[in-house]
């Protein structure tokens, strides 16, 4: 059987690169001399060259692309996460493309399938709305490697993670050590699974110490944003607590503003503790005590794992855990009798 | 002449969608029944169907994609800008893909050319490092519509912009109105052209009022970041000024922390003014007075303009200007004699 003519054969005979041939046959060859263009078209006709879908796919795939799906690009947590992704992608000569469907699962699925049509090499998925069904239908089905950093731990596959339960325990121990006896919790009105783990770890330690947290009285729920924390200040004060653990730093920072406007001194009258260690914590007043998630490392680690998965396929799902730790700043202090 | 068989003809005869035929012929048809796959392959052989590069390009282009090039994804200014892009892209059913080469022009150029290979419909370019050469070689050459929101105003093409000169004037008038007589400037150690416009507008008004700003004494230069502003606090104090205009909010916020650590009361002892109105300004202490750029609107406006350009090509370059205005918060106050 005669060997099928390939684009490489044309390129060799024309004395130009494969890319040049590809661009000329794609009618994108205006940058090349008329002679080169004509030579390539003549060779195509001479050999009755038929472009091959797979060959074309290979060309497209030669520039390696990683899709990074985050819930919200403007959120500093995910900004830092993406910087971690970029640091590794750049080294490995992958192009990171970030997309965000702002928690709309339908839009997310549509964007995803379009990325796959564009021959994406792999995906880093940091999204709480991505469902197992979408992953199966759209991603696994097309054999696209992916790494999860999600907030619901419901999907199968390679993942990077931290222990939220442990992080919650660390926060509780810190506030107990400072002598607080009445402690409130400020959490999301629509918590993801990892937030529940975080709060369960917190409550477990508080209750083991002999104190109580009454759900209906000591747990305040609000949107997981600065504005959510800000407007919850009144309710947090109404609990009579001397310390509060907020589910993330954004909420804690909003709460700081709300307390400040009410003339409450932090930490003298109220200790405030956050979670995440976003890069703004050093620039609010007072500087925010928090539990650190290694956000940059999570992005970098997910990307390393993904590139390994792209280069060496294996069936075994891998999980990599990253440490959490206390970052003590100025927003928490010893209990002071009123 | 006999009409060339198209993928649509195959799809019609097979009773399946064009996408189905495309996927089967791409060897990505495992999801379809064996009967469907065989039917499609048989029709391809019967009609000697030859996939057409242009047809394939049309299919790829049918899902419209906008590339958004920003210098730094983790910067809240560009986070908000991208949210503006997304708001319009979503309505118009374009997919926004964000990429960031962190101010490395070579990497930027490489990423760009790869995006173009992937049949991107257009580009929103918010980058100070993008050169005219790159735009000509990579973007215009491939006939990719683009909109600029850059910091050097050196390139030709459609653009969205604000008046930095006017913004600087607004800042100066505000500080003069508060009675300040000795005013310092904190700007970048590597200013883009728009920052120079901003500072020229500022100086013009100050000098017109009879006051002076001595470059070597009253203008402090530092990296355009929170850390830059923070470490510049000592130098700013050494000027003996009672008010300072920082080139952007990040620097101003860093400066607030530096002043606070030195026991300087803002605004009683020092008024601090920023530029941009990023969404953190309300959550620092004291809340930051600034000149607002309509960041979200700039992203949305650029995207609207781009989609119009994609849909109706014209030769005329367009420029859309957006207003700047004073946002008075708590970090500036009347001059108080020491």
From TrEMBL, chains A, B:
<keyword id="KW-0238">DNA-binding</keyword>
<protein>
    <submittedName>
        <fullName>LacI family DNA-binding transcriptional regulator</fullName>
    </submittedName>
</protein>
<keyword id="KW-0804">Transcription</keyword>
<dbReference type="InterPro" id="IPR001387">
    <property type="entry name" value="Cro/C1-type_HTH"/>
</dbReference>
<dbReference type="Pfam" id="PF13377">
    <property type="entry name" value="Peripla_BP_3"/>
</dbReference>
<dbReference type="InterPro" id="IPR000843">
    <property type="entry name" value="HTH_LacI"/>
</dbReference>
<keyword id="KW-0678">Repressor</keyword>
<keyword id="KW-0805">Transcription regulation</keyword>
<dbReference type="InterPro" id="IPR028082">
    <property type="entry name" value="Peripla_BP_I"/>
</dbReference>
<dbReference type="Pfam" id="PF00356">
    <property type="entry name" value="LacI"/>
</dbReference>
<dbReference type="GO" id="GO:0003700">
    <property type="term" value="F:DNA-binding transcription factor activity"/>
</dbReference>
<feature type="domain" description="HTH lacI-type">
    <location>
        <begin position="5"/>
        <end position="60"/>
    </location>
</feature>
<dbReference type="InterPro" id="IPR046335">
    <property type="entry name" value="LacI/GalR-like_sensor"/>
</dbReference>
<feature type="domain" description="HTH cro/C1-type">
    <location>
        <begin position="2"/>
        <end position="53"/>
    </location>
</feature>
<dbReference type="GO" id="GO:0000976">
    <property type="term" value="F:transcription cis-regulatory region binding"/>
</dbReference>
<dbReference type="InterPro" id="IPR010982">
    <property type="entry name" value="Lambda_DNA-bd_dom_sf"/>
</dbReference>
């Amino acid at each position: 059987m005669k060997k099928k003519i390939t684009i490489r054969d044309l390129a060799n005979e024309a004395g130009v690169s494969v890319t040049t041939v590809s661009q000329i046959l794609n009618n994108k060859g205006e940058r090349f001399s008329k002679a080169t263009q004509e030579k390539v078209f003549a060779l195509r006709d001479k050999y009755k060259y038929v472009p091959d879908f797979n060959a074309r796919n290979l060309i497209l795939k030669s520039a390696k692309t990683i899709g990074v799906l985050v819930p919200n690009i403007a959120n500093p947590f995910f900004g830092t996460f993406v910087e971690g992704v970029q640091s590794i992608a750049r080294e490995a000569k992958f192009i990171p493309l970030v997309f965000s469907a702002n928690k709309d699962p339908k839009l997310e699925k549509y964007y995803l399938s379009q990325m796959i049509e564009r021959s994406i090499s792999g995906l880093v998925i940091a999204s709480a709305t991505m469902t197992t069904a979408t992953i199966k239908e759209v991603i696994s089905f097309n054999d696209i490697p992916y790494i999860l950093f999600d907030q619901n731990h419901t999907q199968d596959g390679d993942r990077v993670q931290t222990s939220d339960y442990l992080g919650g325990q660390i926060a509780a121990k810190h506030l107990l050590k400072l002598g607080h006896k009445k402690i409130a919790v400020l959490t999301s009105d629509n918590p993801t699974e990892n937030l529940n783990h975080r709060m369960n770890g917190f409550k477990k330690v508080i209750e083991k110490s002999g104190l109580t947290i009454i759900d209906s009285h000591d747990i305040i729920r609000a949107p997981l944003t600065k504005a959510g924390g800000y407007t919850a200040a009144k309710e947090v004060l109404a609990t009579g607590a001397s310390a509060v653990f907020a589910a993330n730093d954004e909420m804690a920072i909003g709460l700081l503003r709300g307390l400040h406007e009410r003339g409450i001194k932090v930490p003298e009258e109220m200790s405030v503790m956050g979670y995440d260690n976003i890069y703004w914590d050093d620039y609010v007043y007072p500087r925010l005590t928090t539990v650190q998630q290694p956000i940059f490392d999570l992005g970098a680690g997910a990307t390393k794992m993904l590139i390994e998965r792209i280069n060496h396929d294996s069936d075994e799902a891998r999980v990599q855990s990253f440490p959490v730790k206390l970052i003590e700043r100025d927003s928490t202090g010893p209990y002071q009798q009123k």
